[in-house]
Specification:
The complex is a heterodimer of chains A (114) and B (114). Chain A is mainly beta and 114 residues long. Chain A is built from no helices and 11 strands. In chain A, a hairpin with a 2-residue loop joins strand 5 and strand 6. Chain B is mainly β and 114 residues long. The chains are: A mainly beta (114), B mainly beta (114). At the A-B interface, strand 4, strand 5, strand 9 and strand 10 of A face strand 4, strand 5, strand 9 and strand 10 of B.
């Protein structure tokens, strides 16, 4: 069964460093998303991406964040200068169509900023 | 602010019983409703989705939607210890700037004891 994959599974970084989180969405899916979940809190939407551009972004997704689809399979989230409060689980999701279609989540990357 | 509210629990039920999980949402424009299951440290896993008022059954799971009351629920029949997890209610609008984005509740912790 097709699934969303994410790498790395864990990332530890120093405050101020740049990190890139990688995702491979399900191959025939067209809509891509990043969510994050701070420990003990809700899953929060960060950004959606379609047709090589951002469809929507949340207030969390400030200038420190960017997304890219560098090739036909990968979808990346870059945090330019990490802060302590960026420590969270980051989930990539994809869906076949952005409307009613179900979003399938990857296993997540646990980011720890020291 | 579009909110999704769930009782955080924990909800404890004996094995074989029916577990009832509830969710309310604030945005009347919401069109699609999802239940995800999340084991500790793992990503959300889709259980069911529902779009229309009424009940939708899938195996031991039944989702119920009442758009007039802005209420969605999940019933788990014949609960098993393996059902012990956090259950996330997620809501999506269709159209406008919220196209595609899921808004999650904080989740209800379910414990099924033998």
């Amino acid at each position: 069964e097709p699934e969303v994959t994410q790498t790395p599974s864990h990332q530890v970084t120093q405050m101020g460093q740049e990190v890139i989180l990688r995702c491979v969405p399900i191959s025939n899916h067209l809509y891509f998303y990043w969510y994050r979940q701070i420990l003990g809190q809700k899953v929060e939407f960060l950004v959606s991406f379609y047709n090589n551009e951002i469809s929507e972004k949340s207030e969390i997704f400030d200038d420190q964040f960017s997304v890219e689809r560098p090739d036909g399979s990968n979808f990346t989230l870059k945090i330019r200068s990490t802060k302590l409060e960026d420590s969270a689980m980051y989930f990539c999701a994809s869906s076949a169509v952005g409307g009613r279609e179900t979003q399938y989540f990857g296993p997540g990357t646990r980011l720890l900023v020291l | 602010q579009k909110e999704v509210e769930q009782n955080s629990g924990p909800l404890s039920v004996p094995e074989g019983a029916i577990a009832s999980l509830n969710c309310t949402y604030s945005d009347r424009g919401s069109q699609s409703f999802f239940w995800y299951r999340q084991y500790s440290g793992k990503s959300p896993e889709l259980i069911m989705f529902i779009y229309s008022n009424g009940d939708k059954e899938d195996g031991r799971f039944t989702a119920q939607l009442n758009k007039a009351s802005q209420y969605v629920s999940l019933l788990i029949r014949d609960s098993q210890p393996s059902d012990s997890a956090t259950y996330l209610c997620a809501v999506r609008n269709a159209g406008g700037t919220s196209y595609g984005k899921l808004t999650f509740g904080q989740g209800t912790i379910l414990t099924v004891h033998p």
